[in-house]
Protoporphyrinogen oxidase
Amino acid sequence: MATLTDLVHFTTTSTSSGHVLFPATNCHGLPSSTSSTFLNSRNFFPSSPTRRRDRLNCSRLKFRCSVSTITPPIKGVAPDGGQSELDCVIVGAGISGLCIAQALATKHPDVAQNVIVTEAKDRVGGNIITVERDGFLWEEGPNSFQPSDPMLTMVVDSGLENDLVLGDPNAPRFVLWGGKLRPVPSKLADLPFFDLMSFAGKLRAGFGALGLRPPPPGHEESVEEFVRRNLGDEVFERLIEPFCSGVYAGDPSTLSMKAAFGKVWKLEQNGGSIIGGTFKAIRERNNSPKPPRDPRLPKPKGQTVGSFKKGLTMLPEAISTRLGSKVKLSWKLSSIVKLDGGGYSLAYETPDGLVSLQTKTVVMTVPSYVASGLLRPLSAVAADALSKFYYPPVAAVSVSYPKKAIRPDRLIDGELKGFGQLHPRSQGVETLGTIYSSSLFPNRAPPGRILLLNYIGGATNTGILSKTKSQLVEAVDRDLRKMLINPNANDPLALGVRVWPQAIPQFLIGHLDILNATKIALSDGGIQGMFLGGNYVSGVALGRCVEGAYEVAAEVNDFLSRYLYK
Ligand SMILES: Cc1cc2nc3c(=O)[nH]c(=O)nc-3n(C[C@H](O)[C@H](O)[C@H](O)COP(=O)(O)OP(=O)(O)OC[C@H]3O[C@@H](n4cnc5c(N)ncnc54)[C@H](O)[C@@H]3O)c2cc1C
């Protein structure tokens, strides 16, 4: 889960004016908006004739797992004598699913041996999409990750340590306030001097952090309530509100502090105040020495963000290459049947027709609204709970300007320096924020040009769904000319516009309770060996998906170790 520190690193979007000539819809040959329409499992429960076809298809594919049979296998053993039953099927080859498979292979190789990852699309990566063309390299989903140790472990285990690129930790991050881009303090020593907040606002934040503020109200607080109470209105309006847009594209009045920024929430719970909790956490860390750090891991210098030489897509592709034939693309899970003797039968739509297989465990890393449909025949209560999570739309709009189009006052030593900028909703711009992609990582744009990745939309602006791609580029360009780009500059080159109709799960008030209710419903219904993963469970940041993957892999390993028929 993202922390307030994460917020500073993990960001966002922007927009601009009607000066843009977006050549044509999809003029650059980009894929059109993602679609998230999945079929309800009930519609695809295979009938007997279909099952006969499954068997033929499976044998043609030389697939190792068992085909489904009309009579469920006894005690979870496949009809061919148990050779073909899988230990685990991971559904979804986004970062969560792939990392769970890699974590099983690297951390638990003895137990989970027959594992496959199935993916509905014809490519791996889920939300991660990197495009390279005409000397530009841009991201159409996430733009970077925090190089935490679990993430770096995944990078090293994928053989990508030499491809890792890290941003300059000293590069500034900006927030738009009062028509001006103002740097965000990056270290404690900056706090007294940064001009994003007034002296009175800083004092209020300092006293509040020390504990001079109203006590917790006794109900689950929104991010807005928590921050206004603990740190005051200015911290909320000028720092946290834009950061909520940056992480969740969310509305801080409905996001849950406990669910969305649990590490900060816990500081007050554990230490009586944010600073008290920080000191307590430091003391506890010092008292319980950490295990030695894996010497293979690179050491980032300071707080920064990472990617790869050829973009984020390198990670899912590297993991997929390592997994080889264990990754099944264009395999869309259409139904799940719980077998009487234990385990599950899964039915897939594949390019070769319907295929079914049997497995001891299933890990669902599909979005919750897909999991809801698939799990409904097994547990209506779990399905209802899963249908409650909300994913607002976000568009990722990549544009390029010549360097000379940047306003002179935005240049440092003649360059556009920094991670990017965030825009509070109160500041009269539609774009959520802008990543300075060509400043952050090398080789993202040809010489003389800058590449800006803008995010627009989110929980407070779902109207983006009715805009054309040209209109989205125009909106971004219009906003950028207010503070970053010379108002008289030529139209930008519009590189990629990808609309994510259901982009990022919102960790709203009640999120953890709903998640818990889902797990209880599965457990009470005897749906054992069915694990939930993915960003609505682990947290939305890529780093949290990776940490969540290690956790789920350990749970699967634990279950399989105890599995009666192992
Ligand atoms: C626009 C945008 C910007 C973001 N920016 C950042 C950022 O800068 N940094 C950061 O850390 N995070 C960022 N995030 C969040 C992060 O990208 C996601 O949380 C993460 O990629 C989710 O990975 P996942 O594997 O959990 O889910 P997904 O990527 O959604 O993967 C789920 C997979 O399941 C597949 N699937 C669905 N249905 C079926 C089915 N029936 N059968 C088989 N497969 C199925 C899907 O095709 C998909 O590949 C951003 C997200 C978005 C959308």
User: Anything to note?
Assistant: The first helix runs from residue 4 to 9. The chain has two domains: 1-30+170-299+412-501, 51-133+313-389+511-564.
